[in-house]
From TrEMBL:
This is UDP-N-acetylglucosamine 2-epimerase. It comes from the Bacteria. NCBIfam families: wecB. The keyword Isomerase applies. The lineage of its organism: Bacteria, Pseudomonadati, Pseudomonadota, Gammaproteobacteria, Chromatiales.
């Protein structure tokens, strides 16, 4: 069975890595990797291939940045000839970026030259597989929410990280045979990389001490695109920085907007750095007193690490990190940020690791695929 795996942006790489590995080791599957090039700079892409030992992509579509419509269209335009050439029986997409929906949409209408037998019937299109399905923020202002919903609708097999996502899919009327609760491939990567990450020299390089700093990431358009909003957030965080220095690996989307935000981020309180590689970031998260973020994946990673996380958003598509983990949904109101910081400092949240976030999710997925495709 020929499987094409698709990755395009930073959060995709830790999800695709364990799938590539396990599929590559399982007899009966031939696996290829397509990089759409949605993220292309070294800090958001190449370093992940090195840190996570992801094989070099078989194909790089090099789409780069553009508006949503242009980027989605460009991925579609460049991905269709790949299917034409490769004729895969299955395509795996992960997460919720534009490449995810773009490739899923192409696959779902792509006629194979040679139909194959699937579930007892001739199948004329590749089987479409979505890993990290069913997550919903119920916030349609978020481009990722549109990508998630649409990708799930047109995927045949939906692999799910948490029970809330199973409930969402059931509520949308998705047939049970499409839903598989298998756990979290991103956590497979975290657990596999943990020991190696502890050897990273990033704390020493930045002159940081364990537990003595907070770590910040910000890149959601709703938080960073408007300089007044960004200024309000950074202003509130500057008060925290007076007590604990804040390490801030600045996303390329956010970088050009910081100057306009009108908050002086003094070097005594703030360490502004470029985005760091996966292993360095894992070390930074593991040793932080607190992580402050608007990222999706980081809410999950901090839950597994047992590190308190303040999420600067009004909603989360990953509610298990609140109900079981160490995540706190704070929003961006300065009073709420202050109050949450105080509460977390006095009484740090203690959580537990959600079910199946145990390093075996990719194996569970490949076991399901082996069954579905009759691979022994
Ligand atoms: N990450 C990283 N270096 C950084 C910031 C994040 O390696 O400087 C990793 C992080 O550990 C997680 C992934 O990037 O695995 C999350 O990506 P991002 O926050 O961009 O995307 P989201 O999860 O919000 O879609």
């Amino acid at each position: 069975i020929k499987v094409l795996c698709v990755a395009g942006a930073r959060p995709n790489f830790p999800k695709i890595a364990p799938l590539m590995k396990v599929l590559g080791e399982t007899e009966g599957f031939e696996v290829h990797l397509v990089h759409t090039g949605q993220h292309y700079d070294d800090a958001l892409s190449r370093v992940f291939f090195e840190d996570l030992k992801i094989p070099k992509p078989d194909l790089d579509l090099e789409v780069g940045s553009a508006s949503h419509a242009l980027q989605t269209a460009e991925v579609m335009r460049r991905f269709e000839p790949v299917l034409e050439q490769e004729q895969p029986q299955a395509v795996v997409v992960v997460g919720d970026v534009n490449s995810t929906i773009a490739c899923a949409l192409v696959v779902s209408k792509f006629p194979l030259k040679q139909p194959f037998m699937w579930r007892g019937k001739p199948r004329h299109r590749p089987v479409m597989i979505h890993v990290e399905a069913g997550l919903r923020s119920f916030d349609e202002e978020m481009p990722e929410e549109i990508n998630r919903r649409l990708t799930d609708t047109i995927s045949d097999l939906l692999f799910v990280t948490e029970m809330d996502a199973v409930t969402n899919l059931r509520n949308e009327g998705v047939a049970e045979e499409r839903i598989h609760f298998v756990g979290n491939v991103m956590i497979d990567t975290l657990l596999a990389a943990r020991d190696k990450a502890m050897q990273s020299g990033i704390l020493e390089e930045l002159e940081l001490e364990k537990d003595k700093y907070a770590l910040l990431t910000l890149h959601r358009p709703s938080n960073v695109d408007d300089s007044t909003v960004l200024g309000k957030i950074l202003g509130a965080l500057d008060e925290i920085a007076a007590e604990r220095p804040i390490v801030f690996p600045v996303h390329p989307r956010t970088k050009p907007r910081i100057a306009d935000a009108g908050v002086a981020l003094s070097p005594e309180r703030w360490k502004l750095i470029d985005p760091v590689g996966y292993l360095d970031f894992l070390r930074l998260m593991s040793s932080a007193h607190l992580v402050i973020t608007d990222s999706g994946g980081i809410q999950e990673e901090t839950t597994v690490l047992g590190v308190p996380c303040m999420t600067l958003r009004e909603n989360t598509e990953r509610p298990v990190t609140l109900s079981e983990g160490t995540n706190r949904l704070v929003g961006i109101d300065p009073d709420a940020i202050r109050a949450s910081w105080k509460a977390i400092s006095q009484d740090p949240p203690v959580g537990r690791v959600p079910r199946y976030w145990d390093g075996q999710a990719a194996k569970r997925i490949v076991a399901v695929l082996a069954r579905e495709f009759g691979v022994q």
